[in-house]
Specification:
The protein has 127 residues and is mainly alpha-helical. The chain is 72% helix and 0% strand.
């Protein structure tokens, strides 16, 4: 199952072009707002907020060292949240966001070291 999920994410990440990334950056406030209402997966809002911030930092040139593969997978995960039709319809009470949460969590697992380095670099820039 894990391998299939990873392959699904990789396939989706391949569709993230610079133009799609630019479009997603404009949609990030809506994505953040949508997941803030998901009570069944309380960690999802924080995870999505982090991925959105990561993408914004990369897109604006603040964090050019983040591998594009990490950005593409993060962008796919957030794009998947916006899809009207996905593996488990979001309207299904209690589990509608399970597939979305699994994709976001898998991206975190794939890039935990990269994301930690981003947090540390961002913290040192702000000090």
């Amino acid at each position: 199952m894990q391998h299939e999920l990873q392959q699904f994410i990789l396939d989706g990440a391949r569709s993230i072009t610079p133009a799609r990334l630019e479009q997603l950056v404009r949609q990030l406030p809506e994505v953040r707002l949508a997941v803030s209402q998901v009570a069944e997966f309380p960690q999802l809002a924080d995870q999505v907020g982090f991925l959105a911030e990561l993408i914004e930092d990369f897109y604006s040139g603040l964090s050019p060292d983040i591998p594009y593969t990490a950005i593409a997978e993060a962008a796919f995960a957030l794009s998947y949240l916006r899809k009207a039709i996905d593996l488990i319809p979001d309207a299904v009470s209690g589990i509608g966001y399970a597939d979305d949460a699994a994709i976001v969590t898998a991206v975190f697992e794939n890039y935990k070291r990269v994301f930690l380095e981003h947090v540390l670099a961002r913290k040192s820039r702000l000090e």
